[in-house]
């Protein structure tokens, strides 16, 4: 897997740096690294992998649209002072200044996209299309600016170039009074790094038929993000596009990542002085192609085939990423996905009363005054009220209620509380509760809570015939009242 800054991170880090400053961005990155290490030590890697597909695709497409919005200004060669950071105001400002587009810049940007689209795949393995475009566009810009005076903007004219040496070790100055305020952006970086790294690892697993260690990966990414800011670096994660390219060109071991890092180091030390001549139009064209490739646009045409809950999660994550920011997209998307998942699981839970079918095959029918309810699925907080609804539908309280728990797969504290309330009510009215055939997890929960001790082991039966026999004994005895 190849690690480093990714397109999704640039959008987030730029906003954090603009709001809190470069020094606090470094501190946020180190705090995020520490959080990643703690997440790995707590073995949360496996949990993060269960983030639903519609959510990850929603904010991936949203990030692609956000990147698109950030590159329009340079693609069109516009000079906009004080452009807003939010997507919709930024887009509106860009459209307002559209008549001021610089025609040579637009021509160079369109030519760059056309070259990327037409670059031969055979050559792409040895010289990637984006690198080829930057080289050719840089040469063209140097000629056109000097001979024709086109005034094409470059990295040098915009930012003064790129340093050609490694930064020195430097400890960021910590303002302890701001640490609480920085926790929110640090958590954003940590979550995004964890999600993207583990998704990247899963993609690599599928390509080389391997299996990664999620918790080890989180700790490794955490250590990298703690150390990198000390040398002027920004937050990094597993890069899906670069990793996929790496694997497609034959990589199978971590040595490929080491070679990748050494190659970048050589480019930084040797080729950086030439980078000041790279035109902004070509860079924006490359990033627009990256945004287009990273977005799963076909999903929009498939949404009508999805369940409505998944469609809602996807559109919510996409909308919040574009209109608000990725932090709220992740938070709201996870909450919505969790709520819809709970609703979906609760819908599968059924509590039914079996009329003439009480007896098992070859067994005796239920005695008079005995009602059997069967619980299917998860008896948890999302479905505990169904037991009360089932009792109300029976229109009368039985002398003995038999609950068949054979098909109850899991039980939580809310389910236990519902059973305890039911037992207390029956006990006050001189009625009885019998449990029949609970599975391992519900049985363990009932034992640990002391519920079985309260109803008595004799009221925990192994099959339906035993339950009916016990019910007859209870009805013949004098009812016990509180």
Structure, explained:
There is one protein chain. It contains 22 helices and eight strands. It has 482 residues and is of the alpha/beta class. Strands 3, 4, 5, 6, 7 and 8 form a six-stranded mixed β-sheet that branches. Strands 1-2 form a two-stranded antiparallel ribbon. Helix 18 links the parallel strand 4 and strand 5. Helix 4 packs parallel to helix 16 and helix 6 packs antiparallel against helix 8. The longest helix is centred in the middle third of the chain and has 30 residues.
Question: Which secondary structure elements does this structure contain, and how are they paired or packed?
Answer:
Elements (H helix, E strand, L loop, with lengths): L2 E2 L2 H14 L1 H20 L3 H4 L4 H24 L10 H10 L6 H16 L2 H4 L4 H19 L7 H5 L19 H30 L5 H14 L9 E2 L1 H9 L6 H17 L8 H15 L3 H5 L5 H16 L2 H23 L1 E4 L16 E10 L5 H9 L6 E5 L3 E4 L1 H16 L3 E5 L3 H10 L1 H5 L4 E2 L2 H13 L6
Helix pairs in contact: 1-2, 1-10, 2-10, 2-11, 4-5, 4-14, 4-16, 4-17, 6-8, 6-14, 10-11, 10-12, 16-17
Quick structural overview:
The chain has helices at 7-20, 22-41, 45-48, 53-76, 87-96, 103-118, 121-124, 129-147, 155-159, 179-208, 214-227, 240-248, 255-271, 280-294, 298-302, 308-323, 326-348, 385-393, 413-428, 440-449, 451-455, 464-476, and strands spanning 3-4, 237-238, 350-353, 370-379, 400-404, 408-411, 432-436, 460-461.
